[in-house]
Amino acid sequence: MTTPGEAVSAILLLAGAGFYLAGTLGILRFPDIYTRLHALTKADNLGLGCVALGLALQADTLAAALKLLLIWLLALAASAAVSYAIAQRADTLGIAPWRKDKR
Question: Which residues of 22-35 are buried (b: 16+ CB within 10 A; e: fewer)?
């Protein structure tokens, strides 16, 4: 029999997978590096958060759960810095943002 904690954990893991799928679709769907980067960063941060929380609920010890949450926080900080660096490099290379009127 499934406990309520296991059910919440499963829902969070499925939500995380859904966010990862949405980020992947954003890479395929959006027209330029800036919109792709935006979609991917948001979806990956939410996806990793859901997965980390879902796994933290299943962790045997509090230390293991806290390590998972620390990994998520470090990934949040790193993804913000990396996304900024990628966008800055794209701008330096002269990659213009997509505009609807350009087609």
Answer: bbeebeeebeebbe
